[in-house]
Amino acid sequence: MPAPPDRLDATDARLLQALGADPRATVMALSQQLGLARNTVQARLARLEAGGVLAPFESRVRPEALGYRLSAYVTVQVVQRGLEEVAAALAALPEVLEVTALSGAADLLVRVVAVDADDLWRLTEQVLALPGVQRTDTALALRRYVDHRMGPLLERAAGGDRAAE
């Protein structure tokens, strides 16, 4: 993935806020809403996409809509120098949504989904059986209080949060 821009400016933030409010907005609608030239909006969107600033559309799909009603976090301890191999093996499992390297006792934090408890058991056994995995610990996600969000940070970057200055 290409490197994202070093820092988004206030116009980029306003553009991303507008897209957040209406992800299907046309370039023309965005230019009118933001008071920018159509070419400016188009060029900025292209730069943001090329820089990897915008997450893939699939990140907006909720696993529950596909029948995966259980969500869990699995911490994984890995043999030394085995992170890349284990991460690649985890990426091959469809129920693995995210893999994040950690500092501390656990090496990886893995977000997984499952159809039910039996499916989660199968999946965690599959993770534990991967070459290089020493130990796992699974925590069932019971309720999400704050969904993934960028709105408050975009508002600050757009100049809407004066308390941060």
As a whole number of angstroms, the C-alpha radius of gyration is 20 Å
At the first level of CATH, what is the class of the largest domain? Alpha Beta
SSE succession: HHHEHEEHEH
Question: What's the mean pLDDT score?
Answer: 91
The biggest sheet amounts to: 4 strands, antiparallel
What's the helical proportion of residues? 25-40%
N/C terminus separation: 32 Å
Find the structural class using helix and strand composition.
alpha+beta
Number of helices: 6
Strand content: 15-25%
CATH topology of the largest domain: Alpha-Beta Plaits
Number of strands: 4
CATH-derived architecture of the largest domain: 2-Layer Sandwich
Task: Give a verbal description of the structure.
It comes from Geodermatophilus dictyosporus. It is a single chain. The protein is of the alpha+beta class and 165 residues long. The chain folds into two domains: 60 residues, Arc Repressor Mutant, subunit A; 79 residues, Lrp/AsnC effector binding domain/regulation of amino acid metabolism (RAM) domain (Alpha-Beta Plaits). 37% of the residues lie in helices and 19% in strands. It has six helices and four strands, in the order αααβαββαβα. A four-stranded antiparallel beta sheet has the order 2-3-1-4. Strand 2 and strand 3 form a beta hairpin. Helix 1 runs antiparallel to helix 6 and helix 2 crosses helix 3. The relative contact order is 0.16.
